[in-house]
Amino acid sequence: MNSSKFQVPSSRFAKIQSVIPAKGEIQANRNLDPCLREGDGGKGLEQLPRFLMICSCLLITWNLELGTRYSHASEVFNPDLLRIGVLRWGHGQDYDPYPTVWRDWGKAVESATSIESDPVIKDLIRPMPDELSRHGLVLWVSGPQFQSWTSAQRVALRNWVLLGGGMLLVIGSEGLKALPDRNEEAEHARLRWEMEQIFEGKRLEPIPFNHAVFRAFYLVKQLGGVLQRGRTLEGIKIGERYGVIYCRNDLLGTLLRDREGRYLLSCYPGGENQRKESFKLLVNLVVYSLTGTYKQDAIHSPFIEQKLRRQ
Question: Taking the CB of residue 286, how many other CB atoms lie within 10 A of it?
């Protein structure tokens, strides 16, 4: 973290010094206040080193600076911290059905890896070049109201993945609205068609479980989600990497909690083990978007095979 963020302005330091009593003032107060006279147990203020008082004032000031930094975090983009782009579509909020889960995702990544996340981990963006270019990982959360992208938006998404090296993660949100008239198969088919339009005929293909995305950090052997509708990830390959990854299952819904910290959506059919697999896969997806296929290098094979035997 840049130490310049916490430098105390000279004017503020002058104010701090003004509230610290000088040595003469300490002596005068000592003569007036019987509690500070010699012979009693409270030599207190005279015996307190001035640097401790200065440090206390500086600590308060730094905390104020830190609070200001976090309150204005959305205004400052730091490329060294993880911030995930979330594609906006339509006029409602279906593109972000779980607005409270993003911080938990960031904490899961931070606790498992050395990746630091931005205090504001989510960045709502439009699929336009200037907004896409700030992110290496962008989410497209599907929903029943999604129709299609415009021609310009399709071109921007295609160029960002093909030329910019970004990764587009498409995730279902089936755990949110179990509506009786919701045609999830039609939504699934519409998403596949839209991705083919974006990438000019390239089609989704199943991603095998021995691929790097399932080994990027954790060894993931099954797909999680609120409802296990898909058995594996699908993707569109760009060279040696998957520039697009599609998970039909609702991974984000597994993070949703109430105010008391209890999970709101049950995972079916695998229960809490299915939720753990979702957490592991979400961490892997972030790591894979940053590191690519390095886990497929030969040097990692003995360790991975040994870990698989233990499981």
Answer: 25
Q: How many helices (H) and strands (E) does the chain have?
A: 10, 7
Q: What is the pTM of this model?
A: 0.71
pLDDT (tens digit per residue) in 147-179: 899 999 999 999 999 998 899 999 988 765 555
* H or E element, residue 118: strand 117-125
Q: CA-to-CA distance for 296 and 309, rounded, in angstroms?
A: 18
What are the sequence ranges of the domains in the chain? 3-71, 81-310
Residues 118-150 pLDDT 10s: 888 899 999 999 999 989 999 999 888 888 999
Distance of alpha carbon 94 from the chain centroid: 19
Q: Which CATH number fits domain 81-310: 3.20.20.70, 3.40.50.12140, 3.40.50.720, 1.10.3210.10?
A: 3.40.50.12140
Three-state DSSP at 180 gives coil
